[in-house]
Specification:
391 residues, Chorismate synthase, AroC fold
């Protein structure tokens, strides 16, 4: 089974990732990973760092002649901010010696891990919390998830996402969204993300794109920030991934965990989600039909999952991202040392990171689906799994 680990700090020298459990014989290159890393750094509302720091993952082990060897895959992303500022971050983040005069950051930001992290680990400086809890870590998660995405593509499973709402601008209901995404369900989810990427906020609707951009402009001027809602679609999924037999084998539970484990995520919906609580049953459940060759559903309000298992319809999962807590117009906080009420300090940040979060969400659910696939059709090499999957 595939699992991954990440290490590194926002302003440390590198981000490091290890992906293990990938079957042998999977074709993977640094270019495959670079595509999604580049996508993660695009989108209107990004901060200054995203505009100039181009992430590239270097594969250091586990791949030979363009194919996996069955062992752990190690990757590194160099931090250009660390390399550029020889007198700054290498001193602040020195792994051995604390230099004199290093400023201690004692103003925790509301909505961030700052205060609770410092309390948990007994820090008198929230710098260690800022560094590890930062969404900068998601760069390596995208790299690790890209390996799982490449595995899924071998079996016709594609993942793609788009933005539904930023602030007050967005779609009004489920049916409006389904009409917009219908053609992509047939062509595959990669066609969905490729089209969404043409929008500067990753929205499939041109009019809503303009409204979302204006929302970001408004709150940038106000010195505030914005969150929103995105949707991830997975096409080509076979019937029966996951299980109803135990609580921790249900695939929707695992997908929800993957989304909520990502920085700034506050909610998850599968399919119709919360809207199903406002509808009568006949407007929620998907009627079963037979196409002549297989069982299917007349609609897909369940989001491709029933009883903790995939139905064979596209998986539809939504995530809710809160506004970023770092804002030009500061909130009130308390100094950890003096205990005085004061304003938060500003750390360089995006106004709205939602368009970039779509790529992260696509990536973190990939290992979940890959593992459910391996549980059902698994083997030690791609050729072995292909034999089992085709029978």
């Amino acid at each position: 089974m595939i699992r991954y680990f990440t290490a590194g700090e926002s302003h440390g020298p590198t981000l490091t990732g290890i992906v293990e459990g990938v079957p042998a014989g999977l074709a993977i290159t640094e270019a495959d990973i670079a595509e999604h890393l580049a996508r993660r750094q695009q989108g209107y509302g990004r901060g200054g760092r995203m505009a100039w720091e181009k992430d590239m993952a270097r594969i250091d082990s586990g791949v030979r002649f363009g194919k996996t060897m069955g062992g752990p895959i190690a990757m590194v992303i160099q931090n250009r901010a660390f390399e550029k500022d020889k007198a700054g971050w290498p001193v602040v983040m020195n792994k051995e010696v604390e230099a004199e005069g290093i400023e201690k950051i004692t103003l925790p930001r509301p909505g961030h891990a700052d205060l609770v992290g410092a309390q948990k680990y007994r820090f008198d400086d929230i710098r260690p919390v800022i560094e590890r809890s930062s969404a900068r870590e998601t760069g390596m998660r995208v790299a690790c998830g890209s390996v799982a995405r490449q595995f899924l593509k071998q079996f016709g499973i594609e993942i793609g996402g788009h933005v539904l709402r930023i602030g007050a601008a967005g779609y009004t209901d489920w049916d409006q969204i389904r009409e917009k995404t219908a053609s992509f369900m047939e062509n595959g989810a990669e066609s969905l993300y490729q089209t969404a990427d043409e929008s500067e906020v990753r929205c499939l609707d041109a009019e809503l794109t303009e409204q979302m951009v204006n929302e970001i402009k408004t709150y940038r001027k106000a010195g505030s920030s914005l969150g929103g809602v995105y949707e991830i679609v997975v096409t080509g999924v076979p019937v029966g991934l996951g299980s109803y037999t135990q609580w921790d084998r249900k695939i929707d539970g695992k997908l929800a965990q993957a989304i909520l484990s990502t920085q700034a995520m506050k909610g998850v919906e599968i399919g119709l989600g919360f809207e199903s609580g406002a509808r009568p049953g006949h407007q929620v459940h998907d009627e079963i039909i037979h196409t002549g060759t297989r069982f299917s559903r007349s609609t897909n309000r369940s989001g491709g999952i029933e009883g903790g298992m995939t139905t064979g319809e596209p998986i539809i999962i939504r995530g809710v991202m809160k506004p970023i807590p770092t804002m030009l117009n500061p909130l009130q906080t308390v100094d950890m040392h003096s205990l005085e009420q004061t304003e938060t300090r500003y750390e360089r940040s995006d106004v709205c990171a939602l368009p970039r979060a779509v790529v992260v969400a696509e990536s973190v659910i990939a290992p979940v689906i890959a593992n459910a696939f391996l549980e059902k059709f698994g083997g030690d090499s791609i050729s072995e799994i292909q034999e089992r999957y085709s029978t």
